[in-house]
Amino acid sequence: MILRILALLAAFVPAAALAAERECAQSPGKVIEVCVFVEGGQALYEVRRGSVTVLAPSALGLGFAGEPDARYSALTAARRGASDTSWEQPWGEQRIVRDNHSELTVTLTGDTPFNKAVNVTFRLFDDGIGFRYGYGAIPAGRAVSVTADRTQFRLAGAYQAWWYEGLGQERDEYLYKQTDARRITLAETPLTLKGANGLYLSFHEAALVDFPSMLLAGDGAGTLSARLMPWPDGVLARKTGPFTTPWRTVLIGDSAGALADSRITLNLNEPSKIADISWFKPGKYVGVWWEMHLNKSTWGSGPTHGANTANVKHYIDFAAKYGFDGVLVEGWNQGWDGEWIANGEKFSFTKSYPDFDLPAITAYGKTKGVKLIGHHETAGAVPNYEAQLDDAMKLYEDAGVSTVKTGYVRHSGTITDQDGGNEWFAGQYMVRHHLKVVETAAAHHIAIDAHEPVKDTGLRRTWPNMVSREGARGQEFNAWGVPTNPPEHVTILPFTRMLAGPMDYTPGIFDIVHGKDEVTKRVQSTLATQLALYVVIYSPVHMAADLPENYEARQDAFQFIRDVPTDWETSKTLAGEIGDYVVVVRQPRGGKDWFLGAVTDETARKLAQPLSFLTPGKRYEAQIYRDGPGADYRNDPLAFQATRQQVTSKDSLTLDMAPGGGTAIRFRIVD
Ligand code: NOJ
Ligand code: CA
Question: What mean pLDDT comes out for the span 312-331?
Fold first, then answer.
């Protein structure tokens, strides 16, 4: 009885009575420790991993219009907790996700009305942390403007960084550069670093909802500071109190693979809001797409219009013959003629070009078990799209379409809002817009694959119809990029962009050269690499991007694309160094086989890969798709071999990769 009263008392002790200057918490396995404290009017946190300081004391807090910068005088440990649960993804890179974390919420006492009582909640995992602000002192219904984000990440030690300049006009479609982390000017996230101390870090955010996307600015000395993508008037975020922010995350591991296999981003998102997502099935698709990027046909109307009924039926036949679920068709709708990027408001999302017969196509597809994958290119004319959104989704729903690819080709910073303002591609306006699209689509049982998207922050957990997105330089750059993607690009993505979530990279180009003499004007990989990418890059919807005739001509390699699934029981990154190579294995959901994908940069590499991930005591046939003798992405990209051998978990295989090469393996269980 006395104990119960004491417990009750403890729960009701006024916060001020517990005010302290420093509160610390450790991750469940005591790997990571975070301390929060108040000093000289600043609220600060620091992060350690074992005896290594990862982040030196770094500032916390937001600033608001109409208030001076807050000074903090004390903090209270408002709540502590721990939780070890598992949850199931409806589809994904891993079916069961474990969420094992400890939690510390402190309340900061600030000297301005909105900063009077700021909750900062830290979640600590053994492979990183997340924290977010709760501005609970802002009165209900009170509109506020966030004008500063004071959050810092002060690196302790020397780090290399893989990054590209934030706020560029091509959004996230840039090649990564590798520099000393002190040379970062303004970087997009996920921002991945490798330390001289052997640690790998990645800074990002989770559950980016109704808030601007975060960039990180460097100061030349190793401090990274949050920068939020502003509204046209310079305000960073418009909120109504009280509110919480997205989570700021730091993945911390002792290998590059540890970052890739972290599930922190998903764990920091809310459970699904969609009761029944069974209508979305992961799968593979082909499409009227690469032919436009190669200038063999056009999005707009005319004699070489790609999206004509006969051509689409040809793709449907091909898809049905080889077991693909979907056919993407771009350029089906009116508005592509002329300078479509400049005239996005002319797009109709319900009116087809006369040579594209939507009912006939979907009916034909139905007889063959192939669905049309819809396409909405907005050219960044968001109000025009929003005005038609519901009708557009309904049209597709009625036609039996269950996945729609969206697009926002327009220079970042010139996306028009309904007031004529110029928006960044991932400010609060666009963050709201993308969610509106996903919610509207969900109501129509449609999944979204967004190109030129806001970066992924794990929202697929909450809206599992947000299935994939672009958000990096994809295969399209290998048609017309200046230059095209160099071999190292696909060895950087798994440790940078892919930490955010699935990517619609559109692998599988077999006609690597596509008529170009210069290597920097065509695909810079071997044929085997194109296969390996189906495993290396995770997406629940993967395209076989090349033209049907190029697959028909290479059945030996095509077999792997036919066999590889896009939904997994589990995934592991077995080896890798950022910008050098990566080896990934995945086991199909509900299956016993395993699939391996490995890619290297421009350097040939022989990797001895133990097969200990296979089930002990079982025999497998390893169906190996590898670079052939003399293969080299520069002068012999098509040298290729498909071989088979029996293996067990006790064996090891040598992954022998050419410059720009790769290996794809299906381990088919024998007995
Ligand atoms: C850019 C997308 O990334 C690409 O896949 C698409 O074909 C074009 N926009 C046209 O919408
Ligand atoms: Ca793009």
Answer: 98
- Give yes or no for residue 10 having a pLDDT over 90: no
Closest C-alpha to ligand 1, atom 11 = 377
377 lines ligand 1 (CB under 6 A): yes
Instruction: Give the model's confidence band at 21: pLDDT under 50 very low, under 70 low, under 90 confident, else very high.
Output: confident
The distance of Cα 464 from the centroid of its chain, to the nearest Å, equals 14
| Confidence tier at 19 by pLDDT (50, 70, 90) | low
| Residue 481 CB less than 6 A away from ligand 1 | no
Ligand 1 close to Cβ of residue 409 (< 6 A)? yes
State the Cα–Cα distance between residues 451 and 473, nearest whole angstrom: 11
- Quickly list DSSP for 613-633: TSPTT--EEEEEEEEPTT-BT
Q: In the structure, what pLDDT confidence band is assigned to residue 78 with cuts at 50, 70 and 90? A: confident
Q: What pLDDT is attached to residue 194?
A: 98
172 lines ligand 1 (CB under 6 A): no
Compute the average pLDDT of residues 339-366. 98
How far does the centroid of ligand 1 lie from the alpha carbon of residue 85, in Å? 40
The answer to whether the CB of 451 is under 6 A from ligand 1 is yes
List of residues 6+ apart from 583 with CB closer than 8 A: 573, 574, 575, 576, 596, 597, 598, 607, 609, 655
Of all protein residues, whose CA lies closest to atom 3 belonging to ligand 1? 451
Place of tokens 């995945």: 586
Torsion over CA: 49, 54, 58, 62 (sign): negative
Distance (angstroms) between ligand 2 centre and the Cα of 29 equals 41
Active site residues: 476
Ligand 2 center to 410 CA (angstroms): 10
Ligand nearest the Cα of residue 504 is: 1
Q: Output Rg (C-alpha) for the chain, integer angstroms.
A: 25
Q: Which two tokens stand for residue 299?
A: 């999005």
CA of 502 to the centre of ligand 2 (A): 15
Contact 194, 155 (CB under 8 A): no
Of all helices (H) and strands (E), which one includes residue 437? helix 428-443
